[in-house]
TrEMBL record:
<dbReference type="Pfam" id="PF00266">
    <property type="entry name" value="Aminotran_5"/>
</dbReference>
<protein>
    <submittedName>
        <fullName>Cysteine desulfurase-like protein</fullName>
    </submittedName>
</protein>
<feature type="domain" description="Aminotransferase class V">
    <location>
        <begin position="25"/>
        <end position="394"/>
    </location>
</feature>
<dbReference type="InterPro" id="IPR015422">
    <property type="entry name" value="PyrdxlP-dep_Trfase_small"/>
</dbReference>
<dbReference type="InterPro" id="IPR011340">
    <property type="entry name" value="Cys_dSase-rel"/>
</dbReference>
<dbReference type="InterPro" id="IPR015424">
    <property type="entry name" value="PyrdxlP-dep_Trfase"/>
</dbReference>
<dbReference type="InterPro" id="IPR015421">
    <property type="entry name" value="PyrdxlP-dep_Trfase_major"/>
</dbReference>
<dbReference type="InterPro" id="IPR000192">
    <property type="entry name" value="Aminotrans_V_dom"/>
</dbReference>
Length: 405
């Protein structure tokens, strides 16, 4: 399986896999390869100082920031001058929500989706309320887990200022047709803010093809450190006025970045993108070209592995899988009647499986499905370091839940 991707070699890159657990908790955060840990450690050992000084240690910091911008630009198909860096996707989204809301007028509207992680809902919803802006909701088909693109024809108005949506659900994996929805949003004159946090570890991203005016990612989901980034066209950034301290730089993209950077963590961002680009497909061409080949191979490998997982889950009478989207990342949530998700996760942990339970911050989605009062659902997610044998172990552990204890 996984022609091209040598998973045994890949696993050797991750010291943390030595704990012997099946790490099916990737949607909450991936493990880190040695190359990333090394890059972060090296940045902490070398002389670095705050940016903006005239001595070499300060220049090193500047280089770490530039390196991280260039790496994220390669990852998403953006330009380094349009990459805003920050502690995580959530705080950057608050920053952008505040900046964009300054351009909204009472009576305008925005379109949010019930499929999204709360980080791409609440900042917009709260700022909309504060500015007298109406929120319209794109709904999920509860049976399939799809977010149909056609509904945007009715949701968009001539006063829609923003469409915020996810490129992949963190709870049930659904990949909506972002390009089709963005095209409709642009026809209506709205901007798009696309949450690619869960798409980035699994798919080759092309910001222009997705039609994402803003594209958000988070490096700890793709084997990097805890760093968030938003990519946008520098000209678009130049039109916005974020909150900022008076002496802080006014240039783009720096003016969206509050306070000092965690430069040692930024050192891990190029290492993580290099890791993804080097997973498979050789070392010919630019990093972006290598990423394309590598991520295509990763997607093929993960699709097969995920087929094994969902096939197994669907064959178990005591398991209820939430949704079955046509296009998805290898992420699935399920419930077991008469067992709380926390209890299921604890049983899986006893069998050596790391799995999350709860609402996974997909609060709107799980309210719509109706599982929140019962503790949400158990979520399993696969990454390029998971194996066929691990999925077998996982399925055995879930099958064991049906047997009397
Ligand atoms: C789809 C999605 N969006 C946003 C976030 C928030 O990311 P961060 O932790 O970088 O704020 C997450 C985190 O799990 C996520 O899965």
């Amino acid at each position: 399986m996984g022609e091209g991707l040598d998973v045994a070699r890949v696993r050797g890159l991750f010291p943390a896999l030595a704990d012997g657990f099946v790490h099916a908790d990737g949607p909450a955060g991936s493990l880190v390869p040695e190359s990333v840990a090394h890059a972060v450690g090296a940045a902490m050992r070398m002389p670095v100082a705050e940016r903006g000084g005239v001595f070499p240690a300060s220049g090193r910091s500047e280089a770490l920031v530039s390196g991280a911008r260039a790496a994220v630009a390669d990852l998403v198909g953006g330009v380094p001058a349009g990459v805003v860096l920050g502690p995580n996707m959530t705080s950057l989204t608050w920053t952008f929500a505040r900046a964009l809301a300054r351009t909204w007028r009472p009576g305008d509207d925005i379109v949010l989706s019930r499929l999204d992680h709360d980080a791409n809902i609440r900042p917009w919803a709260q700022l909309a309320e504060a500015h007298g802006v109406l929120v319209r909701w794109a709904e999920v088909d509860i049976e399939t887990g799809e977010l149909p693109a056609w509904q945007y024809d009715e949701l968009l108005t001539r006063r829609t200022r923003l469409v915020a949506l996810t490129a992949a659900s963190n709870a049930i994996g659904t990949c909506p047709d972002v390009a089709a929805i963005s095209a409709r949003a642009h026809d209506a004159g709205a901007l798009t803010y696309v949450d690619a946090v869960q798409a980035a570890p699994h798919l080759f991203l092309d910001q222009a093809r997705l039609g994402a005016d803003f594209l958000a990612v988070s490096a700890y989901k793709w084997c990097g450190p805890h760093v968030g980034a938003v990519s946008a066209h520098p000209q678009l950034l130049a039109q916005l006025t974020p909150d900022k301290l008076v002496p802080a730089p006014d240039r783009v993209p720096d003016r969206f970045e509050s306070g000092s950077h965690a430069v040692e963590l930024l050192a891990g961002v190029p290492a993580a993108v290099d890791h993804l680009a080097g997973l498979c497909g050789g070392d010919e061409g630019t990093r972006r070209a290598r990423l394309h080949r590598s991520m295509d191979a990763v997607a093929r490998y993960e699709r097969e592995l995920f087929g094994q997982l969902t096939g197994g889950l669907h064959s178990m009478a005591h398991v209820q899988v939430l949704g079955s989207p046509i296009r998805s990342t290898p992420t699935v949530s399920f419930t077991v009647p008469r067992m709380r998700p926390r209890q299921v996760a604890a049983e899986l942990a006893r069998h050596g499986v790391c799995a999350w339970d709860g609402d996974h911050y997909a609060r709107e989605l799980f309210d719509a499905i109706g599982v929140n009062d019962d503790g949400g659902a158990v979520r399993l997610g696969l990454l390029h370091y998971n194996t066929v044998e691990e999925v077998d172990r996982l399925l055995d552990a879930i099958a064991a839940l049906a047997r009397p204890r």
